[in-house]
Amino acid sequence: MSLSTRHLLGIKDLTVDDISLILETAEQFKEVLQRPVKKVPSLRDVTIVNLFYENSTRTRFSFELAEKRLSADTINFAVSGSSAAKGETLLDTVRNILSMKVDMVVMRHSASGAPHFLAQHIPAAIINAGDGVNEHPTQGLLDAFSMRKKLGKLEGLKVAIIGDIMHSRVAMSNIYLLNKMGAKVTVCGPPTLIPKYIRESFGVEVNYNLKETLEWCDVANVLRIQLERQNQVLFSSLREYNIAYGVKRKLLDNLNKEIVVMHPGPINRGVELDSDVADSKQSIILQQVENGVAVRMAVLYLLSGRNPGNN
Q1: Nearest-10 crossing angle of helices 137-151, 285-304
Q2: Which terminus of the chain, N or C, has less C-beta within 10 A?
Q3: Band of the pLDDT at 88, cuts 50, 70, 90?
Q4: Does 221 map to a domain?
């Protein structure tokens, strides 16, 4: 089996079969990562460049580790020390890199649509590692993989996405994926941080009451407040946000059930999530990080066109 696309630009472009194939392949790589020897020769002789125009820790390290586990040759591109800092265009930068015979490009960029632009102009496979406020497809995939590993299914699952929905590419990828896979989604947060069109355009429910949302859901995926993307004041203060929308231990203890807590990171402790929740047994945040390597191995592998049976 193979993916229906040459690139991973967004969950929006994937079919249900594509998503299922990625998750099933990630299961295989999850098993590989439990072995004493965690490295396989699956992408030997494949050269991958990690092109990050935005700061990143988890995503960049996760891709780098996934590439090394697959035995790929990797190049890490830092904008601050490159010709891009001198004014070189994105297309010229990538064309110069491709002249060195690169097979795949993992790209993060502050401009929405930048990976899509590249995919139209260069022959290498493009993997979107986050573009502006558009999508973060591998995060959406690893979140889904983590939910399925913990709860055994996606179809019919009640998932609440809580926080800064307006500026979150993670929220968009999660919504696209969960809708395709038959889950039920509710978004929750201050009215100023939830797009007015989201119910009609994306088929999700909206609830501005955190307690009601937590009582409804099976999984709470809590998002970071992205102050760096906000060009105006959208709530009174971080303290006020924490009072109204921070997920706290007492709030979870008062529910009539135990829910799963997730976060894509980095966590603003004491703002959207209190430490005694982030570090609790209900939290699968560290499992998300671990699962991210297996999911990104699966994505790289499938886009390379190589046969999983050769592992």
Answers
A1: 120
A2: N
A3: confident
A4: yes
Rounded CA gap, 175 and 191, in Å? 18
310 pLDDT exceeds 50? no
Compute the half-sphere exposure of residue 306: CA atoms within 13 Å on the CB side of its CA.
Answer: 20
Can you give the CATH number for the domain in which 297 is found?
Answer: 3.40.50.1370
Mean pLDDT taken over the chain: 91
The residue with tokens 């097979």 is: 103
Dist. CA 227–CA 94, nearest whole Å: 30
Q: Write out pLDDT tens, residues 248-299.
A: 999 999 999 999 999 999 999 999 999 999 999 999 999 999 999 999 999 9
* Cα(57)–Cα(38) distance, integer angstroms: 22
Residue whose pair of structure tokens reads 């995919």 in the numeric block: 119
Q: Which domain holds residue 101?
A: 11-135+292-310
C-alpha triplet 179, 213, 251: angle, nearest 5° = 140
**Shared-domain flag, residues 88 and 117:** yes
Cross-strand pairs, 107: 51, 128
Q: What is the pLDDT of residues 177-193, one digit of tens each?
A: 999 999 999 999 999 99
Residues 197 and 86 in one domain: no
